[in-house]
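writing this on my phone so excuse typos. first protein, seq and then structure
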Amino acid sequence: MALYEHVVVTRPDISPQQVDALVEDITKIVTEGKGTVPKTEYWGLRNLAYPIKKSRKAHYSLLNIDAPGAVIHEIERRLRINEDVLRFLTVKVEELQTEPSPVIARKDRDDRKRDRDDFGGGFGGGGFGDRPPRGDRPPREDRGDRPPRPPRDR
């Protein structure tokens, strides 16, 4: 059997429970076709790069699928018919990723960052003014060999 990564982008006005039901339907199709779905991820309601069918946001879901090609063909056929699906993409891969996808890993990292007590946040801390000068050149006032610029006439 072949290994696939499958991403489904659905309309923003359906609920996350309806997205889960769609993912369950896809999983059911795969298991009926003698395949497996080792990992599913719901990435949430995210902004789109450009409007699709007048929608600026969409629900994203990722499925790792280990199934024959005929099963993938059937999944794609059913997704083309489904009005809740804006886009989908199936990519054949050499091996399935077991760790969380970069989208989920970034979301977890951002959540941990917000939970820390020492998070400076805002524009008050960690600005450019308290950064040391770059190591590959001396600060502006210490560049000795060049003559100073003449004043500009306006």
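second protein below, same order as before
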Amino acid sequence: MQISKMHISQRPMEKMQMYGKEALTDAELFAIIFRSGTRNMNAVDLAKQMLRKNNCESPLVSLYEQSLLELQEISGIGEVKAAQVHAVLELSRRIAKQKHSKDIKITSANSIANLYMEDLRHLKKECFKVVYLDTKNTIISDENISVGSLNASIVHPREVFKNAIKQSANSIIVIHNHPSGDPNPSREDINVTKRIEKAGELLGIALLDHIIIGDQRYISFKEEKLI
């Protein structure tokens, strides 16, 4: 059935206006984003088909983990709709992270590893991130400094501390992932950390820790007495 022929209370847009966004199913929310379906199914049915495809308990998480090409393997999902799915799920992730990280005080390696684990553990390339902290060890902001190959991230202390100075950070924590899932540090990881630590000493901005994220595991340079 075409959405325009549904009862007004069942049309996703009108339903949202009448009852609020919380009243809509996941499929109805995606239907509003898609705006149109295909020749054979309306936008709601297309969204239901997309959500059912993985046959798992967490279809939204599964969708987030799929690439654009993988989404396009679903009948009726082309480049535009795949990009729409990625965009809305990424915005949702960023909202959740901002709400979770606001005014968080870092008290341990575990607290920051838990905060960034889901961001980094699924990535297929190494991503080097800097977290800027104030005098109370509360997060000011974070920034991706480098995205490298599967084997290495090239990081220069200049890039690490540029925004730390602009934001008057008192200290920093650096984090990066190992796509292999093994968080044990390489020789390069150790060398880069030493360079950043020395640069921070000169600038008066302490490097509190370097966290390497693996698959549900992490290594803290501070806990391992590597800094």
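The CA atoms of residues 68 and 172 lie 34 Å apart. thats all i got for now
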